Amino acid sequence: MTLLLLSTADTDLLAARSVREPALELRLANPARVDDPVTLLDGVRVVVVRLLGGRRAWDGFDALRTACVERRVPLVAVGGEGALDAELADASTVPAGVVADAAAYLREGGTGNLGQLVAFLSDTVLLTGVGFDPPSALPAYGLHGAREVDPARPTVGVVFYRAHELSGNTSFVDVLCDAVEAAGANARPVYVGSLRPDGEGRLPVVDALLADVDALVVTVLASGGSNASHAEGWDAGALARLDVPVLQALCLTSSRADWDASDAGAAPIDAAMQVAIPEFDGRLVTVPFSFKETGEDGVPVYVADPERAARVAGIAVAHARLRSVPNADKRVALVLSSYPTKHSRVGNAVGLDTPASAVLLLQAMRAAGYEVGDFPEDGDELVHTLIAAGGHDVEWLTEDQLQAAVARVPLADYRAWFATLPASLQEAMVEHWGAPPGSLYVDGSGDTAEIVLAALQYGNVVLAIQPPRGFGENPIAIYHDPDLPPSHHYLAAYRWLAAPVEQGGFGAHAVVHLGKHGTLEWLPGKGLGLSAGCAPDAVLGDLPLFYPFIVNDPGEGTQAKRRAHATVVDHLVPPMARAESYDEMAQLEQLLDEYAQVQAMDPAKLPTIRGQIWELVEQAQLHHDLHVAESPSEEEFDDFLLHVDGYLCEVKDVLIRDGLHVLGQAPVAMPRVDLVLSVLRAQQTWGGEAGSLPGLRRALGLAE
């Protein structure tokens, strides 16, 4: 006699596969990988279906149930959550008590409970009399294995699902923990059923096993669960109270071969469940390190990629070390964007006064105990000092500046770094830029050549200009080119920042990209879930990246989060004000007022004013915006003026920047008033229709 177990949780199948001498022969499958479930019913005496996400998680459920009813095969259907799924229980064809007990065995999990589930159903449904034990309560959380602890090292917690522990599917966790230890930290693997807190906001596993970690690598779902119904109960407070970096390590549902061949990098289900939703917890997104490969009986197992596991571990350990390194010893790189590659564009960032912000940031670091040396205390002086040291503008860069540059990478060092890249990336870089060191910003020739970087050092801080992506007739196209690999100069700059001081590098503990936006997160590679051959991964490596980014552009900020494991620090938009009317539009507004007065008091003058209005409309080229080719007739002119008046009101209400934001400084006096009024006036887009929701002032009927 055979029992068919269909579960969307592969860990159920792995646990069931390990059952020794089950009371019934087992047939195992994941419904997501079954084309026609009816074909699995031959010789089956009882069916158990477990669907994470409920009945709607599998389109084939109704067909299976119909076939079971027709063949008189008992059906036990349960959900994946802790509470009983009423809809699936109602669809079952066995008594409700049997469904509830079966769900309890599956909820507790593990090989022992799966074996007793088979015996329970054999006895109570098929009446075989084999006997069974009730479900065994297993720990809700705990430590996986025993690992040595070095008190001098930081500790990285690794959180994975309890179901993996109970099913013995833990080799991928072991590989990651080995990589954490190889990177210089203690690894503490912890299994847990969920990171969703209880009704009182408590998460016992955090207090019991994770309270003293320096960083946390998580492979489970977000604290709010996986669907919109959990939104109101979303609470990441327990993780936030740890006050440590929480990094999401990706365990993809695809095979490694499928991931490697994919430009997207992650299937939509993985992008949603393992990236987008965990971001609401504030987690930092790393890379995939585990993949599902087909095992015995077609049941997938998790298989780790040691190289990608090393990248996850390296990023985690680098973040963990930041807690223990004294501020006076921390080495930080402040990187300014430069787009296009002109001196006039150094420090260009949307809405941010980058030079002034850099000065304030350096001052704040000095106050916090960082060693920042003697730097120019004025933003203009700071950026001009940086430009005078060289920069990247080839129209102004001199041989003397190249020779005098402080930050330099010997060709031998760069060749060693370049040799560590995957062959595909090496080939692409050589194809576009020639053999190392290339021709960009190189001082000297032959084996003694050095790659020169645009940077100044103040104490333990390097202020650098981000290397250009390249040169050509269209620098804007190059800037956004999705296929152009980084130049040798680009790679050398970031590898020099990361390399230890004793190896000739700067030895940065972290990098700050100051303002939206640089080019690193737009380098070629997968959309997310990067491989070693993806340029952002190869360039940045394990370095922690902190990224002040304008708050009103989360879309582009997401690129840095997902492709460069960035910690995005939102900053305020620049001061905003109404555009108001000016020049011809101000004159036109005055003529409209005169027209209204003349219309009531001296209509004979109307033709003259109509002519003046139309002449001014043409002079300001407004007739194109108004979609009117010629002066309206006398009968149509009043309607035309209503159109003009509405247009002028819209233009006056347009929000424009009134200066730049300085990091850490809120606007004061009238700029603050104007910004608040702008927020209150702003209309919102809804359902793809601009202005469909009125601003707060208009909604309240207040004067504009």
Termini separation (Å)?
Answer: 78 Å
The counted number of beta strands is 24
Please give the radius of gyration in angstroms.
Answer: 32 Å
Q: Which strand order spans the largest sheet, edge to edge or round the barrel?
A: 5-7-6-8-9-10-11
Summed over residues and divided by their number, the pLDDT gives a mean of 90
Largest sheet: 7 strands, mixed
Morphology call: globular
H/I helix tally:
27
Q: Are there runs of 5+ residues with pLDDT below 50, and where? A: 226-230
Total count of domains: 4
Q: Percent of residues in helical segments?
A: 25-40%
Query: Beta-sheet strand percentage?
Result: 15-25%
The assigned structural class equals alpha/beta
Oligomer: single chain
Short description:
By secondary structure, the protein is α/β, with parallel strands linked by helices. The chain is 38% helix and 17% strand. The strands form 6 sheets. Strands 5-7-6-8-9-10-11 form a 7-stranded mixed sheet, sandwiched between helices.
Describe the structure.
The protein is α/β, with parallel strands linked by helices and 704 residues long. The chain folds into 4 domains: 2-124, Rossmann fold (3-Layer(aba) Sandwich), CATH 3.40.50; 141-321, Rossmann fold; 329-571, no CATH class; 580-653, no CATH class. Helix content is 38%, strand content 17%. It has a 7-stranded mixed beta sheet with strand order 5-7-6-8-9-10-11, sandwiched between helices. A 6-stranded mixed beta sheet has the order 16-17-12-18-19-20, covered by helices on one side. Strand 8, helix 9 (237-240) and strand 9 form a beta-alpha-beta unit. The chain is globular and about 105 Å long. This is Aerobic cobaltochelatase CobN subunit. It comes from uncultured Frankineae bacterium. Keywords: Ligase.
